[in-house]
Each structure stands twice: as C-alpha cells, then as structure tokens.
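=== RUN LOG ===
request id: a7f3
mode: sequence -> structure
chains: 1
length: 348
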Amino acid sequence: MRKTYLKTTILLVLTVFTASCKHEVDLFADYREVPIIYGLLDATADTNFVKITHVFYPNGDINQAALNPATSNYPGRLDVRLTEYRNSEPTREIILDTITIHNKQTGTFYAPAQKLYYTTEALNLNTSGDKYSYELSVALPDSTIHAKADIVGNRNFKVKSLAVNFSKEYFHTKRPINFYPATNGDYYQAEMSFTFYERLTPDSDSVPRTFSWKVSENDDYYLSHHMDEDTYVLSYRPAAFWMALCEYLGNDTLNESVVRLIGDYPVEIMISACGKNLKQYMYFNNSTSIAPGDPEFSLIDGGYGVFSSRMTIRRKVRLAGETVPDLIENKYYRFKFMGGKTDESALP
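=== RESULT ===
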C-alpha cells in the first residue's frame, strides 16, 4: 500500500503542475519540497520506525529517478523527535536516530536498503487511568512538521476464543472470534495461521510448515453495536481454511510417502487494531474517487502520508468439533494427530 501511495502521490503532483501551467511558466519557479512521512507506533514493539522522504520533480524518467535513493531522501540526519503525553500532559521527549535496513523488497522505489528513523525506547500502553499519545516533530530545512497519534491498545486487548471449528458441517456458515476491544482502536482486522509438521519420508526430519489467510475486518462503530456480552466479534468462514490449505499444499499432495502431523494448538489467531488516522488513510487510499478528485488529501499537515498507531494480539487455539477427524479422513492431505506433543523434538 505504501509503495502504491507514494508513486500515486508523485504522479498526481506532476499531473497537477503540468495541467495547470501554460507553456511560458517555469514548472520549478514555485518549487517547494513536500515531505512524505509514514509512521505507525506500536507500544508493544521493541523498536518503532518512521520513514521520512519527500516528493521529487525529476527532469527525466520518473521511474528511473525513483530508483535513486538521493532523489527522495533528505541528506544527512534530520532532527526527529517524539513528545510523549500522558492524559494530555507532556512527560518526556524521545530523539529518533537513523538506521538503514537491507531487506526491502524490490519495486517502484529503491531497494533493498532503506533509511529509517527509529527508537528503541519503550512506549507506554494505555491503562484504566492513563491515556498516552505521541507527537512527532520533524525539523526540515525550511519548516517543521508536526503530527500526533493516540496510542492504540491496553493490557485487556486479548482474544477470548479458545478454539476454532473448521468442521464440514459449518463449511458454508460464519463462525465467531471473540475478543476484548483495544483502547483507541478504530478498525480491526483478523488473520489466522495454521502450522503442522511435515515428514517427507519415514527417515527424514520433521519440518514445520505454516500458512496464513485473511479472515475478516470491521470498524469499531459496527463492532461496538454488535457485541457478544463484553466482547467484540469478528467472523471467519471454515471454507476459507480449506481453500487456503488446498492452495498452500498444491502439488505437494502428490507425494504419497509424506506424513503431516497436527499438534494440540495448530491455529494462531491474530487481531490487529489501528487508530483513527490509519483507518482514514486506508479508506481514502482505497477509494477510486480520491486520485482524480483530491490530490492534496493527506493526514500530515504540510506533507503527505500518515502517522498513527496500531497493536496486534495473538493467541494459539485448538481445533474444535470434527475438524481433526475431517482432516485425517481426507487421505489426499495425509494428516495425523500427534496429541499433546507440540514441538518437533517430541514427534514420534
């Protein structure tokens, strides 16, 4: 999403300048460096990152310019700070340092190295009595950009469900995932992952394999008006598990000597909550009307991008109902249940 948004932003800016100027006007006469800031704070993370670049106006091929780090990066190190607020009162200031990562996937913009701003100082989660927010301050050569985000999450943001049921009898129905909501959570997304151990031959080692699939999503307004007692509910479809399993295994099912072992807790539920700013960013970014109608849309005052917060919770759960018998019954997949043994070293 980020790469698409940045490329769209650059193309839109160029389009607006080109369409609104006559031949005798110098396109760069009113040049102003427009920053692009992307930061999502997570109070449960060991390290928080902020990416800071700027819109560029190349004289030549825009795609070639995008592959050059000097085109979109600010030179040197900017003065980037986070001011922490507890119940609207400032409590401390955190200075961000720079780091270069080397694992960005190739795409429109330069890779694999990327310069980011980061801090390893622990951010505070909300409690029953204290609400935290952080203001980002970026000192640019000709201005200072400010953006503020309320921290999403608290210790009570947890998955309540203990099991999931992918039995054939529920194949075409919806099943609930119950969880306790997060403070300042404005939008929720759920995913699941399934892990099993695979042995290709009787003499080979067991190898863990995992695949994931998206489950469902909804906003806080809807979920808060459709609660199950004190919990929010996101739904999953058992059919989605079987389709994801079939796609993941593919031709691997042709190996008749393979054995796949299922443990007691093979499924992990992951629920992510995001703040209001990120929800708006995702909504407008996916809207077909935003590109031609409002190229100046942004959640950063004086720039482009988004500064918000998010938090992800995880819980490993059991397979309920007839899910395990249904998996074992399907000889095509060659699954076996290994009881309470949960790691590779305990396998027979």
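=== NOTES ===
The longest strand covers residues 304-319.
Confidence is low (pLDDT under 50) at residues 1-31, 287-296, 342-348.
=== END ===
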